[in-house]
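Hi, here's the filled form for the chain we discussed.

Project: internal
Contact: R.S.
Residues: 469
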Amino acid sequence: MLALRLTRGAQPAVQLRRLLVAAASAGTSFLLLSALGYALSHPGSPGSSLLRLAWCLPPLAATIHFAVAVARTDPGAKPRSGLSAIGLGPARLMAVSATTTALSCTLGSMVALLFFLHLRGDLTGMPFDGAAAEFLAADTPLPLPATLTLLTPVPAIASLAVAFALRPKERHPRTRPAGRSPVRVGAYGTSAARGTFGAYGRFGAHSGRGGAPAQGAQDGTPQAQPSDPPQTAAPTPGDPATDWTEAVANPTDDAAAPAPVLPPAPGKPPAGLPWGIAVIAAGLTVEAYAVHAATGTTLTMPVALPTGPAGTLLGWLLTALGLTLAAPGLTHLCGRLLQTARPGALRLLAGRVLMAEAVRIGRPLGIVCAATSGAYAMATLSDPDATSAFGPLTTVGVTLVTSCTVATLLTATLEAKQARAETTAALLRLGAPTSMLRSAAALRAGVLMAFFGPLTLIVAELAALPLAR
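And the returned structure, exactly as it came back:
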């Protein structure tokens, strides 16, 4: 009931994203049911039926990834002050978000079942009754266990993935090593000169007045006389403006320092760049070997789903996985390239954001590149004179994967914007113009498009090269 109330009371933008998840679930469930219909109409070819079911894995993975991205941006799943007192802690919010995702995906699966039965001719009273009766084996009774089995994976896997992504994480308090004195604000633990405990909070620490003696009275150095000009107060530790100033002024500080509002970007790229390159090479190799070993060297696009060799599917999946693994490191590299050659405030801000958000933005961007390269390769290999090169279900699958990946990227961008809300507010308090923030966002988008666009075309050409022979 709580999940239903939170779902009903959400904002229109949140409801729209949930409806998009339901639509993606409906498309994926319909593809799974279509594979069942093909198996019922062709009982003598289990290999082709299994391969058509395997071609449903990319839409299933894209749908689940999109559902997780939507759940991460849901305002109702974010812990807020006062919710734990009424029993809505992190674990309960995670359960509510997983239940909401399961409800959205179940709604989409039910819509897919109704549309499937309508095309079979089992449901009448609407246009296109029985339009695909021959293909979906309308003369064969529909097995209920198999139907329920194919309708279950999308809601079950999506809810489990959301629960795993939003699981409560234990936060260990950051302890200071014994025998080390606290550092000054902005020193980040690298300077040899360290301040004493409470140096910035003690009254009279700089003028020698108050209950505590001045520093010069202890080490024998001359103290400041009343005629000396007054010293300015030191910055307050933890102030957002001070932290951002120190982060910009010291771009190579240690990453283990106390985190400011915008923490210094990691100096090392995210792990996975060399593995991603290796997996891409392995995927292209497997694809080339599978095409060479197969009798036919072209990838057919029938009315149902692609039925090329299984090695081709494995090669494409490995290539997509490699792009996903390598994209965060490449995004981090783009951010580092933006900060080369004496950068100004605009390039420094855009590069730091790219480096800090490399994992959050890079993974969906890599998946978009993989889907785009696959669609480009299939479009290149298709015969322009053939009228049935792309069947209706192939079009549904390609459209579903492309739409889900692009929507996931946009949702991840929204999540990154929400995570930078405090940083943006601190910059505005410091006097940064709004036009500079917009220019930094446009610069980040332009650099990513200029880098990943040619990379996608290169991977697509390499993926289509063995199949074109």
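Let me know if anything looks off before we file it.
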